[in-house]
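Reminder: ligand-aware prediction takes two inputs, not one.
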Amino acid sequence: MKNISILGSTGSIGVNTINIIRMFPEEFKVKVLTAKNNIKLLADQIIEFAPELAVVYEEKNADMLVKLLPAGLKTEIIFGKKGYKKAASYSGSDIVISSMVGAAGLVPTIAAIKAGKNVALANKETLVMAGEIITKPNFAKRIKIFPIDSEHSAIFQSLAGHKKEELTKIILTASGGPFRKLPRKKFNSITPDEALNHPTWSMGKKISIDSATLMNKGLEIIEAKWLFGINEDKIEVLIHPQSIIHSMVEFIDGSVIAQLGNPDMKTAISYALSYPKRLPIKQTRMDLAKIGSLSFETPNFDKFLCLRLAYEALKEGGLMPTVLNAANEIAVEAFLNKKTDFLSIPKIIEKTMLKYNNKSLNGNIEQILEADVFSREIASSFIGVI
Ligand code: MG
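Here is what comes back for the chain with magnesium ion:
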Protein backbone atom coordinates (compact mmCIF):
# COMPACT_ATOMS: atom_id res chain seq x y z
CA MET A 1 0.00 0.00 0.00
CA LYS A 2 1.40 3.38 -1.05
CA ASN A 3 0.30 6.58 0.65
CA ILE A 4 -0.25 9.35 -1.90
CA SER A 5 -0.34 13.15 -1.81
CA ILE A 6 -1.75 14.85 -4.89
CA LEU A 7 -0.73 18.48 -5.41
CA GLY A 8 -3.32 19.75 -7.89
CA SER A 9 -5.96 17.05 -7.56
CA THR A 10 -8.69 18.77 -9.60
CA GLY A 11 -6.69 19.43 -12.79
CA SER A 12 -6.43 17.07 -15.73
CA ILE A 13 -3.52 15.00 -14.31
CA GLY A 14 -4.98 15.09 -10.79
CA VAL A 15 -8.33 13.75 -11.96
CA ASN A 16 -6.62 11.00 -14.00
CA THR A 17 -4.53 10.09 -10.93
CA ILE A 18 -7.71 9.87 -8.85
CA ASN A 19 -9.18 7.56 -11.51
CA ILE A 20 -6.18 5.20 -11.20
CA ILE A 21 -6.36 5.24 -7.40
CA ARG A 22 -10.08 4.49 -7.60
CA MET A 23 -9.30 1.39 -9.74
CA PHE A 24 -6.76 0.03 -7.20
CA PRO A 25 -7.96 0.75 -3.66
CA GLU A 26 -5.75 -2.08 -2.34
CA GLU A 27 -2.62 -0.41 -3.80
CA PHE A 28 -3.07 3.25 -2.91
CA LYS A 29 -4.38 5.41 -0.08
CA VAL A 30 -5.00 9.14 -0.58
CA LYS A 31 -3.46 11.06 2.32
CA VAL A 32 -3.35 14.64 1.01
CA LEU A 33 -5.25 16.60 -1.65
CA THR A 34 -4.68 20.17 -2.79
CA ALA A 35 -6.51 22.35 -5.30
CA LYS A 36 -6.62 26.02 -6.20
CA ASN A 37 -9.95 26.87 -7.82
CA ASN A 38 -12.26 23.90 -8.26
CA ILE A 39 -13.48 23.71 -4.66
CA LYS A 40 -16.66 21.76 -5.49
CA LEU A 41 -14.66 18.92 -7.10
CA LEU A 42 -12.14 18.98 -4.24
CA ALA A 43 -15.03 18.60 -1.77
CA ASP A 44 -16.32 15.58 -3.72
CA GLN A 45 -12.81 14.03 -3.68
CA ILE A 46 -12.47 14.63 0.07
CA ILE A 47 -15.85 13.01 0.72
CA GLU A 48 -14.85 9.99 -1.39
CA PHE A 49 -11.29 9.45 -0.12
CA ALA A 50 -11.29 11.02 3.39
CA PRO A 51 -7.66 12.26 3.20
CA GLU A 52 -5.93 13.40 6.39
CA LEU A 53 -5.13 16.83 4.95
CA ALA A 54 -6.61 19.10 2.27
CA VAL A 55 -5.11 22.41 1.19
CA VAL A 56 -6.40 25.30 -0.92
CA TYR A 57 -4.63 28.53 -1.80
CA GLU A 58 -7.07 31.18 -0.57
CA GLU A 59 -8.67 31.51 2.86
CA LYS A 60 -12.12 32.21 1.38
CA ASN A 61 -11.89 28.91 -0.54
CA ALA A 62 -10.97 27.08 2.67
CA ASP A 63 -14.13 28.53 4.27
CA MET A 64 -16.17 27.52 1.25
CA LEU A 65 -14.70 24.01 1.36
CA VAL A 66 -15.56 23.54 5.04
CA LYS A 67 -19.18 24.48 4.25
CA LEU A 68 -19.35 21.88 1.46
CA LEU A 69 -18.15 19.03 3.69
CA PRO A 70 -20.38 16.98 6.01
CA ALA A 71 -19.88 17.45 9.76
CA GLY A 72 -17.67 14.91 11.49
CA LEU A 73 -15.20 14.45 8.60
CA LYS A 74 -11.70 14.27 10.11
CA THR A 75 -9.82 15.91 7.18
CA GLU A 76 -7.74 18.88 8.29
CA ILE A 77 -8.39 21.89 6.01
CA ILE A 78 -5.69 24.59 5.69
CA PHE A 79 -4.74 27.21 3.10
CA GLY A 80 -1.91 29.32 1.69
CA LYS A 81 1.77 28.79 0.91
CA LYS A 82 2.47 27.22 4.29
CA GLY A 83 -0.42 24.85 3.66
CA TYR A 84 1.10 23.75 0.34
CA LYS A 85 4.44 23.21 2.03
CA LYS A 86 2.81 21.02 4.67
CA ALA A 87 0.95 19.10 1.94
CA ALA A 88 4.17 18.52 -0.02
CA SER A 89 6.19 17.32 2.96
CA TYR A 90 3.40 15.46 4.79
CA SER A 91 4.96 12.78 6.96
CA GLY A 92 2.32 10.14 6.31
CA SER A 93 2.85 10.13 2.58
CA ASP A 94 5.23 7.97 0.45
CA ILE A 95 4.90 9.62 -2.94
CA VAL A 96 3.88 13.12 -4.01
CA ILE A 97 2.10 13.69 -7.32
CA SER A 98 3.28 17.07 -8.53
CA SER A 99 0.48 18.09 -10.90
CA MET A 100 0.00 21.78 -10.21
CA VAL A 101 -0.04 23.97 -13.34
CA GLY A 102 2.91 26.19 -14.18
CA ALA A 103 5.61 27.85 -12.10
CA ALA A 104 3.36 27.66 -9.01
CA GLY A 105 4.32 23.99 -8.76
CA LEU A 106 8.02 24.70 -8.19
CA VAL A 107 8.12 25.55 -4.47
CA PRO A 108 5.82 22.72 -3.31
CA THR A 109 7.71 20.17 -5.46
CA ILE A 110 11.03 21.27 -4.00
CA ALA A 111 9.51 21.04 -0.52
CA ALA A 112 8.54 17.43 -1.30
CA ILE A 113 12.04 16.58 -2.54
CA LYS A 114 13.66 18.22 0.49
CA ALA A 115 11.36 16.22 2.75
CA GLY A 116 12.72 13.05 1.13
CA LYS A 117 9.55 12.16 -0.78
CA ASN A 118 9.58 10.34 -4.09
CA VAL A 119 7.92 12.57 -6.67
CA ALA A 120 5.74 11.61 -9.63
CA LEU A 121 6.32 14.67 -11.73
CA ALA A 122 3.79 16.15 -14.12
CA ASN A 123 4.81 19.75 -13.36
CA LYS A 124 7.51 20.17 -16.01
CA GLU A 125 8.17 23.76 -14.89
CA THR A 126 9.98 22.40 -11.82
CA LEU A 127 12.69 20.96 -14.09
CA VAL A 128 12.56 23.85 -16.58
CA MET A 129 13.28 26.39 -13.85
CA ALA A 130 15.33 24.45 -11.34
CA GLY A 131 16.46 21.26 -13.13
CA GLU A 132 20.09 22.24 -12.86
CA ILE A 133 19.78 22.51 -9.07
CA ILE A 134 17.48 19.66 -8.15
CA THR A 135 19.23 17.02 -10.28
CA LYS A 136 22.55 17.64 -8.53
CA PRO A 137 23.43 14.41 -6.68
CA ASN A 138 23.50 16.12 -3.30
CA PHE A 139 20.10 17.74 -3.69
CA ALA A 140 17.92 14.75 -4.44
CA LYS A 141 20.06 11.86 -3.33
CA ARG A 142 17.48 10.03 -1.25
CA ILE A 143 14.56 10.33 -3.60
CA LYS A 144 13.43 9.29 -7.06
CA ILE A 145 11.66 11.43 -9.64
CA PHE A 146 9.24 9.45 -11.81
CA PRO A 147 8.11 11.27 -14.95
CA ILE A 148 4.38 11.55 -15.63
CA ASP A 149 4.78 13.53 -18.83
CA SER A 150 3.98 10.90 -21.49
CA GLU A 151 7.14 11.54 -23.56
CA HIS A 152 9.41 11.32 -20.53
CA SER A 153 7.61 8.26 -19.24
CA ALA A 154 8.23 6.70 -22.68
CA ILE A 155 11.95 7.55 -22.48
CA PHE A 156 12.13 6.29 -18.88
CA GLN A 157 10.52 3.01 -19.97
CA SER A 158 12.70 2.70 -23.10
CA LEU A 159 15.88 3.22 -21.09
CA ALA A 160 15.06 0.48 -18.60
CA GLY A 161 17.89 -2.05 -18.39
CA HIS A 162 20.31 0.04 -20.47
CA LYS A 163 23.39 1.99 -19.54
CA LYS A 164 23.18 5.76 -19.92
CA GLU A 165 26.64 5.79 -21.56
CA GLU A 166 25.16 3.74 -24.42
CA LEU A 167 22.48 6.33 -25.17
CA THR A 168 23.20 8.49 -28.22
CA LYS A 169 19.94 10.32 -28.77
CA ILE A 170 16.52 11.03 -27.32
CA ILE A 171 13.77 11.47 -29.90
CA LEU A 172 10.87 13.42 -28.40
CA THR A 173 7.73 12.97 -30.44
CA ALA A 174 5.18 15.76 -30.85
CA SER A 175 1.72 15.63 -32.41
CA GLY A 176 2.36 19.01 -34.02
CA GLY A 177 -0.80 20.43 -32.45
CA PRO A 178 -3.93 21.72 -34.20
CA PHE A 179 -2.07 24.08 -36.57
CA ARG A 180 0.50 21.74 -38.05
CA LYS A 181 -0.99 22.13 -41.52
CA LEU A 182 -2.29 25.69 -41.21
CA PRO A 183 -0.20 28.17 -43.27
CA ARG A 184 1.62 30.67 -41.09
CA LYS A 185 -0.12 33.58 -42.82
CA LYS A 186 -3.37 32.39 -41.22
CA PHE A 187 -1.90 32.28 -37.69
CA ASN A 188 -2.98 35.85 -36.92
CA SER A 189 -6.67 34.89 -36.83
CA ILE A 190 -6.33 31.83 -34.52
CA THR A 191 -8.84 31.99 -31.65
CA PRO A 192 -8.39 30.47 -28.16
CA ASP A 193 -11.14 27.93 -28.91
CA GLU A 194 -9.31 26.76 -32.04
CA ALA A 195 -6.01 26.53 -30.14
CA LEU A 196 -7.64 24.56 -27.31
CA ASN A 197 -8.93 21.95 -29.76
CA HIS A 198 -6.01 19.50 -29.64
CA PRO A 199 -6.16 16.75 -32.30
CA THR A 200 -5.05 13.78 -30.16
CA TRP A 201 -4.66 14.60 -26.45
CA SER A 202 -7.26 15.82 -23.95
CA MET A 203 -5.45 18.19 -21.55
CA GLY A 204 -5.77 21.32 -19.42
CA LYS A 205 -6.00 24.78 -21.04
CA LYS A 206 -2.44 26.02 -20.45
CA ILE A 207 -0.79 22.89 -21.84
CA SER A 208 -3.21 22.78 -24.80
CA ILE A 209 -2.12 26.27 -25.88
CA ASP A 210 1.52 25.27 -25.30
CA SER A 211 0.92 22.29 -27.59
CA ALA A 212 -0.53 24.56 -30.28
CA THR A 213 2.55 26.83 -30.20
CA LEU A 214 4.93 23.84 -29.69
CA MET A 215 6.19 25.55 -26.52
CA ASN A 216 5.10 22.40 -24.71
CA LYS A 217 7.71 20.47 -26.70
CA GLY A 218 10.25 23.20 -26.00
CA LEU A 219 9.65 22.87 -22.25
CA GLU A 220 9.88 19.10 -22.63
CA ILE A 221 13.35 19.35 -24.22
CA ILE A 222 14.53 21.22 -21.12
CA GLU A 223 12.73 18.73 -18.88
CA ALA A 224 14.42 15.81 -20.70
CA LYS A 225 17.86 17.33 -20.42
CA TRP A 226 17.70 17.42 -16.62
CA LEU A 227 15.67 14.29 -16.07
CA PHE A 228 17.95 12.07 -18.17
CA GLY A 229 21.20 14.02 -17.88
CA ILE A 230 21.66 14.41 -21.64
CA ASN A 231 22.87 17.46 -23.54
CA GLU A 232 20.37 19.37 -25.72
CA ASP A 233 22.27 18.62 -28.94
CA LYS A 234 21.32 14.98 -28.39
CA ILE A 235 17.61 15.72 -27.95
CA GLU A 236 15.65 15.76 -31.19
CA VAL A 237 12.01 16.66 -31.81
CA LEU A 238 10.05 14.57 -34.31
CA ILE A 239 6.52 15.43 -35.42
CA HIS A 240 4.31 12.36 -35.24
CA PRO A 241 0.66 13.39 -35.72
CA GLN A 242 -0.94 10.12 -34.52
CA SER A 243 0.63 10.40 -31.00
CA ILE A 244 1.05 6.61 -30.82
CA ILE A 245 4.83 6.52 -30.33
CA HIS A 246 5.27 8.55 -27.15
CA SER A 247 9.04 8.95 -27.60
CA MET A 248 12.15 6.93 -28.49
CA VAL A 249 15.78 6.46 -27.53
CA GLU A 250 18.68 5.60 -29.80
CA PHE A 251 21.72 3.61 -28.63
CA ILE A 252 25.36 3.44 -29.78
CA ASP A 253 24.68 0.33 -31.88
CA GLY A 254 22.00 2.17 -33.90
CA SER A 255 19.14 0.42 -32.15
CA VAL A 256 16.07 2.55 -31.46
CA ILE A 257 13.62 1.63 -28.69
CA ALA A 258 10.20 3.24 -28.49
CA GLN A 259 7.22 3.11 -26.17
CA LEU A 260 3.81 3.03 -27.84
CA GLY A 261 0.22 3.28 -26.73
CA ASN A 262 -2.99 5.20 -27.22
CA PRO A 263 -2.78 8.88 -26.26
CA ASP A 264 -4.08 8.43 -22.72
CA MET A 265 -2.29 9.70 -19.61
CA LYS A 266 -3.41 6.75 -17.47
CA THR A 267 -0.46 4.54 -18.53
CA ALA A 268 2.21 7.14 -17.65
CA ILE A 269 0.52 8.04 -14.36
CA SER A 270 0.05 4.44 -13.23
CA TYR A 271 3.66 3.54 -14.11
CA ALA A 272 4.94 6.51 -12.09
CA LEU A 273 2.73 5.50 -9.15
CA SER A 274 3.49 1.80 -9.13
CA TYR A 275 7.07 1.59 -10.56
CA PRO A 276 8.65 -0.90 -11.04
CA LYS A 277 5.36 -2.82 -11.09
CA ARG A 278 2.79 -2.44 -13.89
CA LEU A 279 -0.91 -2.28 -13.11
CA PRO A 280 -3.72 -3.89 -15.16
CA ILE A 281 -5.33 -0.66 -16.38
CA LYS A 282 -8.77 -0.90 -17.97
CA GLN A 283 -8.66 1.26 -21.07
CA THR A 284 -9.07 1.01 -24.83
CA ARG A 285 -6.11 -0.92 -26.26
CA MET A 286 -4.00 0.29 -29.15
CA ASP A 287 -5.12 -1.25 -32.44
CA LEU A 288 -2.31 -0.71 -34.97
CA ALA A 289 -4.17 -2.41 -37.82
CA LYS A 290 -7.01 0.04 -37.31
CA ILE A 291 -4.62 3.00 -37.09
CA GLY A 292 -3.07 1.78 -40.36
CA SER A 293 0.00 3.96 -40.65
CA LEU A 294 2.24 6.10 -38.51
CA SER A 295 3.80 9.18 -40.07
CA PHE A 296 6.69 11.47 -39.17
CA GLU A 297 8.05 14.85 -40.21
CA THR A 298 10.63 17.33 -39.01
CA PRO A 299 9.29 20.29 -36.99
CA ASN A 300 9.02 23.64 -38.76
CA PHE A 301 11.10 26.02 -36.62
CA ASP A 302 10.17 29.03 -38.82
CA LYS A 303 6.48 28.47 -38.22
CA PHE A 304 6.69 27.48 -34.56
CA LEU A 305 9.06 30.05 -33.09
CA CYS A 306 8.47 28.92 -29.49
CA LEU A 307 10.38 25.71 -30.18
CA ARG A 308 13.42 27.68 -31.36
CA LEU A 309 13.17 30.00 -28.33
CA ALA A 310 13.18 27.03 -25.97
CA TYR A 311 16.39 25.63 -27.53
CA GLU A 312 17.95 29.10 -27.25
CA ALA A 313 16.95 29.45 -23.59
CA LEU A 314 18.41 26.05 -22.83
CA LYS A 315 21.68 26.86 -24.61
CA GLU A 316 21.95 30.15 -22.71
CA GLY A 317 21.21 28.30 -19.47
CA GLY A 318 21.21 29.99 -16.08
CA LEU A 319 17.98 31.86 -15.45
CA MET A 320 16.93 32.00 -19.12
CA PRO A 321 14.69 28.89 -19.05
CA THR A 322 12.85 30.51 -16.10
CA VAL A 323 12.46 33.72 -18.13
CA LEU A 324 11.17 31.75 -21.12
CA ASN A 325 8.66 29.91 -18.96
CA ALA A 326 7.42 32.99 -17.08
CA ALA A 327 6.99 35.06 -20.26
CA ASN A 328 5.18 32.14 -21.88
CA GLU A 329 2.75 31.83 -18.94
CA ILE A 330 1.94 35.54 -19.15
CA ALA A 331 1.53 35.43 -22.94
CA VAL A 332 -0.66 32.30 -22.86
CA GLU A 333 -2.91 33.76 -20.17
CA ALA A 334 -3.26 36.98 -22.18
CA PHE A 335 -4.09 34.95 -25.30
CA LEU A 336 -6.74 32.92 -23.43
CA ASN A 337 -8.24 36.18 -22.13
CA LYS A 338 -8.18 37.63 -25.67
CA LYS A 339 -5.75 40.37 -24.62
CA THR A 340 -3.19 39.34 -27.22
CA ASP A 341 -3.15 37.25 -30.40
CA PHE A 342 -1.60 33.88 -31.18
CA LEU A 343 1.32 35.28 -33.19
CA SER A 344 2.25 37.61 -30.32
CA ILE A 345 2.95 34.73 -27.92
CA PRO A 346 6.51 34.03 -29.25
CA LYS A 347 7.09 37.78 -29.78
CA ILE A 348 6.35 38.53 -26.11
CA ILE A 349 8.65 35.68 -25.02
CA GLU A 350 11.50 36.70 -27.33
CA LYS A 351 11.33 40.37 -26.29
CA THR A 352 11.32 39.38 -22.61
CA MET A 353 14.36 37.13 -23.13
CA LEU A 354 16.18 39.92 -24.97
CA LYS A 355 15.45 42.42 -22.21
CA TYR A 356 16.49 40.11 -19.38
CA ASN A 357 20.05 40.26 -18.15
CA ASN A 358 20.83 36.55 -17.73
CA LYS A 359 22.81 35.18 -14.79
CA SER A 360 24.08 31.74 -13.94
CA LEU A 361 22.32 29.89 -11.12
CA ASN A 362 23.71 30.34 -7.63
CA GLY A 363 21.96 27.25 -6.26
CA ASN A 364 19.35 29.28 -4.42
CA ILE A 365 15.68 28.84 -5.32
CA GLU A 366 14.99 32.46 -4.27
CA GLN A 367 17.07 33.64 -7.21
CA ILE A 368 14.85 31.64 -9.59
CA LEU A 369 11.66 32.93 -7.97
CA GLU A 370 12.88 36.53 -8.29
CA ALA A 371 13.71 35.99 -11.97
CA ASP A 372 10.26 34.48 -12.44
CA VAL A 373 8.50 37.51 -10.91
CA PHE A 374 10.68 40.02 -12.76
CA SER A 375 10.23 38.38 -16.17
CA ARG A 376 6.46 38.28 -15.64
CA GLU A 377 6.57 42.07 -15.16
CA ILE A 378 8.60 42.53 -18.34
CA ALA A 379 6.33 40.19 -20.33
CA SER A 380 3.19 41.92 -19.01
CA SER A 381 4.52 45.28 -20.23
CA PHE A 382 4.43 43.92 -23.80
CA ILE A 383 0.78 42.73 -23.67
CA GLY A 384 -1.35 44.76 -26.06
CA VAL A 385 1.72 46.74 -27.16
CA ILE A 386 3.15 44.28 -29.69
MG1 MG B 1 4.06 15.69 -22.82
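Residues 317-386 form a domain with the Rna Polymerase Sigma Factor; Chain: A fold (CATH 1.10.1740.10). The chain has three domains: 2-147, 153-262+297-306, 317-386. We will return to this case in the review session.
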